[in-house]
Design a protein that fits this description.
This protein is mostly helical.
Length: 315
């Protein structure tokens, strides 16, 4: 395919879903997806090989998360995304908001910590390096809401409404770097909120919900701004190829609608996951209290009864 201008694919026929889903792999993301699936599968196999359980649901979430990345980066959606703002926005929303949530529900860090062997005394192996990274000051900074929320917002406004987007779209490495950035921003934003894997920040469930909803209105406003614009706002998509048969402004309005809609979908998914985690956390805490009461003969109740008896004796 010919590439010119801002790295755009110029000879594509009009977009249809069937054409968009045709296999057209980006080598970087294809290798990355296969490597992720291979490493995760190795971790699960290692746990089961020594008789440890690993929830099937986590494996399913991770596999689907990787497949969503492959869906938008290893099909012709990636080719159409170079010339159609609306298709690019589907890529952006999936890889920055849907894929990270599914990957995090797969708990890959927890799996790695359980599957990697412990290094011998005085030596450092992959597991020790991972633990060191998790407890590092760098990780504390990039997973803090004071960093994640502004980064999440600036990845929209600071990219699309400045010349940076056109610069990145002008080369294949720039485009790949931009997509990797979207994925990583989504991961660090949702990681503390999801709370499945260990991390430096473990806020309570109410605070997690507040962090979630702090960023979403800005996503909706971004989509509305694109929908209401009276002229194309992104240079890379101002002159779509005639072969597509589309109008730049109409396509931009569609991109805005996609961005606006996607601000709601992940919020609902994460909210469901948080309520589920919260409920099970309360259940586990109740079980722990019951077991503690069984072990100590319910000393708290005995102490309370003794207190009531002492009050009676004073009368």
């Amino acid at each position: 395919m010919d590439h010119s201008g801002h790295g755009m694919t110029m000879d594509l026929p009009p977009f249809t879903l069937g054409r968009g889903l045709e296999f057209s792999p980006d080598p970087f993301f294809l290798v990355g997806c296969l490597a992720a699936l291979g490493l995760y599968g190795w971790g699960v196999a290692r746990l089961r090989g020594r008789g440890d359980a690993w929830p099937v649901s986590r494996t399913v979430f991770f596999i689907v998360g990787v497949l969503t990345i492959a869906l938008v980066m290893c099909t012709k959606l990636n080719d159409y995304g170079m010339v159609m703002f609306s298709v690019h926005m589907v890529q952006h929303m999936v890889i920055s908001m849907l894929s990270p949530i599914l990957l995090l529900l797969g708990a890959p860090v927890t799996l790695a910590l359980r599957a990697l062997p412990v290094a011998g005394r005085g030596s450092t192996g992959p597991r020790e390096l991972l633990l060191k990274l998790l407890h590092s000051r760098y990780m504390k900074v990039i997973t803090h809401p004071g960093f994640t929320i502004p980064m999440f917002i600036s990845s929209l406004y600071g990219l699309y409404f400045t010349p940076l987007f056109d610069f990145l779209m002008g080369s294949k490495p720039g485009h790949i770097g931009m997509m990797v950035h979207f994925l990583m921003v989504g991961v660090v934003f949702f990681w503390p909120i999801m709370g499945v894997d260990p991390g430096p920040h473990r806020p309570g469930y109410v605070m997690r919900m507040l962090e979630l909803f702090a960023g979403m209105p800005f996503h909706a406003f971004f989509g509305i701004a694109l929908m209401m614009a009276s002229e194309p706002m992104v240079k890379a998509y101002q002159n779509p190829p005639a072969s597509l048969g589309i109008d730049a402004l109409t396509d931009q309005n569609a991109a805005g609608g996609i961005a606006w809609a996607f601000s709601e979908i992940p919020s609902v998914l994460v909210l469901i996951a948080l309520v589920y985690q919260w409920y099970h956390s309360e259940q586990r805490q109740a079980v722990r209290k019951d077991r503690a009461a069984d072990r100590d003969g319910d000393k708290e109740l005995e102490a309370y009864n003794a207190y009531l008896a002492s009050l009676q004796a004073r009368r």
